[in-house]
Each structure stands twice: as structure tokens, then as C-alpha cells.
Amino acid sequence: MSDTTFPPCPECGSEYTYEMDPLLVCPECGHEWDPNAAAAADTDTGPVIKDSVGNILADGDTVTVIKTLKVKGANQPIKAGTTVRNIRLVDASDGHDIDARVEGFGQLKLKSSIVKKI
């Protein structure tokens, strides 16, 4: 019998977890997880921002606008399919968590829910 103890299951809290290389497994709920990935996720400092289809966004990514957007003070809307390069993620104010320069419009804040990562 091994004297190694494993952390409890993060899903159900069961103490009967066991190792199945390279994962830990819970026999009660069937949850499998990588303990190293969980430790790395705990050290992450900021919130994870995802695009409209669930891809994780990062500073410097290139995205495409997925629907036509009306812009106050502009003569024309930003059309669906417009490519926006070198985005910068910012703290969400009013849900606008992307700061970007859109060609023909200048500096704008966008919502991550209306873009798709390329």
C-alpha cells in the first residue's frame, strides 16, 4: 500500500482519488484532471477573456468582427468580417474588454462577444 496522498476531487470533494498517469481520477464522479495544469491555473492573475466561440484571447491577437456594428458619430458602420489586428485586453468597462484600433474608425473599445479570433 502506498503512503502517497492525492488532493480531493475538485468536482465532488471525494477523498478517494487515485493516479492514472498523468491524470488524477475520482472513482465517485468519474472526473479526471491534470494536477499540474490546476496548479498553473491557480497562479494566473487575470480573468480569462474569450471570443464569441470560446477561444481564449490574448494581447496582440488578430480578430474578426462577426456582426455589423453601428458606431456613434461615424457615417458608416463597422461591417461584419472586418479584421482588427493587435488587440489589447483591458478591464471590462460596460462589457467592453478589448481596446483596438479599427482601420477607418480609429481607437475603439469592443466587446469580446462580437469578435472571433483568427
From TrEMBL:
Gene3D superfamilies: 2.20.25.10, SH3 Domains. Residues 5-34 form the Protein YjdM N-terminal domain. Signal peptide: none annotated. It comes from the Bacteria. Residues 49-117 form the Protein YjdM C-terminal domain. PANTHER family: PROTEIN YJDM, PROTEIN YJDM-RELATED. NCBIfam families: phnA. Belongs to the YjdM family. This is Zinc ribbon domain-containing protein YjdM.
